[in-house]
Amino acid sequence: MLHENLSVNERGHLCIAGRDTVELAEKYGTPLMVMDESRVRRNMRIYNNAMKKYFGEKSFPLFASKSFSCKYIYRIAKEEKMGIDLVSSGELYTALQEDFDVSRAFLHGNNKTDFDINYAMDSGVGYFVVDNLTELDRIDSVACEKGITQKIILRLTPGIDPHTHAAIVTGRVDSKFGIAIETGQADYAVEYTLKKKNVRLCGFHCHIGSQIFDIKTFCDAAEIMIKYISHVKSKFGYGVEVLNLGGGFGVKYIESQPELDYEEFIRLISQFIHNEVERSGIAMPTVVMEPGRSIVADSTLTLYTVGGTKEIPGFKNYVSVDGGMPDNPRYALYQSDYTVCLASNMNKKADFECTVAGRCCESGDLLQENVIIPKPERGDILSVLVTGAYNYSMASNYNRIPRPCVVGIADGKDFTVIRRETFEDLIKNDV
Ligand SMILES: *Cc1c(COP(=O)(O)O)cnc(C)c1O
Description:
Layout: E1 6-8, E2 14-16, E3 19-20, H1 21-28, E4 32-36, H2 37-55, E5 60-64, H3 71-79, E6 83-86, H4 89-97, E7 105-107, H5 114-123, E8 127-130, H6 133-146, E9 150-157, E10 179-180, H7 185-194, E11 199-205, H8 215-236, E12 242-244, H9 262-280, E13 286-289, H10 293-296, E14 300-311, E15 317-321, H11 330-334, E16 340-342, E17 352-357, E18 366-373, E19 381-385, E20 405-410, E21 413-418, H12 423-427
Parallel strand pairs: 4-20, 5-6, 5-13, 6-7, 7-8, 8-9, 9-10, 9-11, 11-12, 12-13, 15-17
Antiparallel strand pairs: 1-2, 2-3, 4-14, 14-15, 14-19, 16-19, 17-18, 20-21
Helix pairs in contact: 2-9, 5-6, 8-9
Bound molecules: pyridoxal-5'-phosphate (PLP).
């Protein structure tokens, strides 16, 4: 199967972490997301161990929690001694409910509101990742009012195009994120920041995009960042402590994609960085990375109940399910690849080419087009694999569809992680 936590049992049912998905669908209803906790922990440990091994004890990974944010995941991240990357006060609030030590948190975002700045400082967030100088001014003045010095790092755009989907490219000069090195604006920002009294410049950040399989892209970005650190050292006499290289490691969603060996990836990047650092004669910074997708994506699958099929002779076939863009908007947003399988009848011959459609009143509400699966019947359970990242966290109530239930599996036991929304939940803010 696509990942080692998936299997098929003697009843021909799809299993995750050894549990029968059809039984889980019966117990909890559909749409249902099932998360294999041991896979999340495994992924976190790979990053944690590899970063300490190859970059030294001070180095650590941050879980990019926008990929899946809820109390449960912060609990696991805390137990696994991960740092976290936050992009909003809502994520911060959620992490604080689990007493997450936010001195190991980095606060992102290209528009931190006054509320965000105050709340994050009052909560003791370790680092602000500063996106622009307007924001820097405000962070400095709020820190001044509070009588503190806030640690910050500057988000820079190294001018790299990682050849992934345009909507998930973030490191180009014309990005909405960060300050460009190429235009000289980064130099200005460094000089400007160093003069500020209530912020302390600790280093630089870059994040070039997501779903990247090519290590060269990371090395290209790292090379530019290290050259820049060296340039800043000679121009301003300032030595960088932290180099945050962002996230973006690719995940295998479909058979034709590779399964990356993240430890090997980190080893190679570390080798490259050590060479570059040595060559440019700067001190080795503490390297931080921010994996999101590669921590949670392959831990989870989504189960749907098939409503029916429709064959349009000479055109195409449709399979309709009881979820769709409200629980997974990624196909509608980015035409993301997914593997679809008939969880309730895995041994049946796959000979039905179809488009899997969600239940919303929106023709773009598709989960995948042109997949070949066994022809399902009404009531069959259909699964979309590798849905742990940017699915629940992007979920909406479009068409007043309640968000699904998320179930965790650990040590063979199932438990609710996020309850299914109710109709009362849907109207709780309606006045
Ligand atoms: C989204 C994001 C990440 C995580 O990216 P993944 O592709 O999920 O690993 C990390 N850092 C920043 C700044 C991001 O915006």
